[in-house]
């Protein structure tokens, strides 16, 4: 039985097939969402995730749609994203931190990947609890936000820029500007350890494909830029700020059952990170091809 994907253009279908090959069954949820319900993918069927330590001092503390990452250091906590509003920040982030014995008052930095409300809505409240510095790209902080009111940039907040390094308590996070999902989406790369074994985590900051061709092409270029950085830093771990971005609900459930000596499900290996990157690149190329094909069929519909 053939399952339908959202692509009708022959070229887009070919790209989608490449994406499915690249996934090799490793990220079925990501493939499904990233690549317009491509065959071989699947939707999410999982309960609300439990908060959990994924790498040494690196915690998954989000909900079933948006993940939030807490990175604990001797000098405080770095948070990646902040959910939709104060209520979600209290109910999910603060509650999960308490379950993990992480003190929300110790948050020092809140890095916001982009200006969609499900990523920054709880940031102002979390800053009020902790005095943390908020950080987002200038493009997105000054741009048109989608969702809750954007937190006002205080004197101790700052912009995230391409190539920037943020260091706290011996941990360093590299910032990569990857516009496309929004004009100032940022992605992050940082070393982690798994029971002492060193790895390098990559987290791409934007998810859904934009609707217009220029933004899709920018997104596609950003994937190349991000791949260059993850190659240079030898990233071997895929994390995401959305559970659909890294098959996070499956991985958290696997991790909860992990026995000593078993592999960490988030470690993809270098080869896995390269395939993950190829999956995204192929899906973006499919989106672009589909738009071009639609436009050729209906020249007045070109955007
Ligand atoms: Zn978004």
From TrEMBL:
Keyword Membrane belongs to the record: no
Sorted UniProt keywords: Antibiotic resistance, Hydrolase, Metal-binding, Periplasm, Signal, Zinc
Keyword Hydrolase: yes
Lineage top rank: taxon: Bacteria
Catalytic activity of the protein: a beta-lactam + H2O = a substituted beta-amino acid
Listed Gene3D superfamilies: Ribonuclease Z/Hydroxyacylglutathione hydrolase-like
Cofactors that this protein relies on: Zn(2+)
This enzyme's EC code(s): 3.5.2.6
InterPro entries in alphabetical order: Beta-lactamase_class-B_CS, Metallo-B-lactamas, NDM-1-like, RibonucZ/Hydroxyglut_hydro
Subcellular location as annotated: Periplasm
Enzyme class, first EC level, given as a word: hydrolase
Domain Metallo-beta-lactamase: 65-242
Assembly and binders: Monomer.
PANTHER family: ACYL-COENZYME A THIOESTERASE MBLAC2 (PTHR42951:SF4), METALLO-BETA-LACTAMASE DOMAIN-CONTAINING (PTHR42951)
Family statement drawn from the similarity comment of this UniProt entry: Belongs to the metallo-beta-lactamase superfamily. Class-B beta-lactamase family.
UniProt protein name: beta-lactamase
Species lineage: Bacteria, Pseudomonadati, Pseudomonadota, Alphaproteobacteria, Sphingomonadales
